[in-house]
Amino acid sequence: MKRNDDSPRASCRLDSLLRGQQGSVISIDVDGMPGPLKPSELERRLIEFGFVEGARVEVLHEAFPGRDPIAVRIDDHTVALRRKEARAVVIALTCQRHSARG
Amino acid sequence: MSALALPADVLRIALVGNPNCGKTAIFNALTGSRQKVANYPGVTVERKTGRFRSPGGSVVDVVDLPGPYSLRAHSPDEEVTRDVVLGRFAHEPAPDIVVCMADAANLRLNLRLALEIRKLGRPVILALNMMDVAERRGWRIDAAALSAALNMPVVPTVAIRRGGGPWPDRADRSHDGGHGRDRHPVRRRLRLERAHLGRLARLPAGSRGHPG
Prior knowledge:
The complex is a heterodimer.
Chain A: E1 11-13, E2 21-28, H1 39-48, E3 56-62, E4 70-74, E5 77-81, H2 83-86, E6 89-96
Antiparallel strand pairs in A: 1-6, 2-3, 2-6, 3-4, 4-5
Chain B: E1 11-17, H1 23-31, E2 48-53, E3 59-64, H2 76-86, E4 97-103, H3 107-118, E5 124-129, H4 131-136, H5 143-150, E6 154-156, H6 169-175, H7 185-202
Helix pairs in contact in B: 1-7
């Protein structure tokens, strides 16, 4: 069966998105997330940052060293996230750019 | 500045909105201030105040607040915003009007905060800033429908950067006839914002002293 270009190809976590790859948010899954924030608090903050279902996301930058934190564009604004907290965002890959620069 | 010394007819408004939605640009435009506007988060880390006279003659005190993602206050600067809006700031009554600033080009995020602010039960005006950017991106926003849906006044605004945006110098010169020295695009635009805000400021005037 033929897929059109907009159909999601695979789901993954935001922390594993490579620079230049784009996706759209499917859900937030905070189960078992490590870190200073309570899972419910992490979930609310991510929603307040704009990680809501259908939001388009792209990893713009990765800090040096350790590629952490990361700068993520959500629709038309940009936030910085710790990579381990970005793991709570479940996304569908929509597009892989050949170049990291847009 | 002591709030106690203010004349009773001073209207107090607070600018609240997500980071980077243009609060400080509007603040500067309204008050003629030159607070630094920078395009990175956390620029406004404390409250700033200014004053202007609206076209209707009222004296308006403006408070520019740090941009929160929510009123739940994750950080000290967000606590300032929450406390001022709720009237918890010492020696400073709650603002008469909360002007909720929203980036019109990123409404989905910004409306979430607007709804949170609306829940406070204070008089709220929604200012849709960066309307020029939204239009360039092909967004058409029905301010009247939005106003009806949110049950709050909605005013489109544009606070542009110095020398940039849709008011190039040439256009500016051709329109400055009645405004004397105001050839500066930002100041010129400011006049428009003042008119907007004067209109805004008159709208909920009857509800001043509204129980919070």
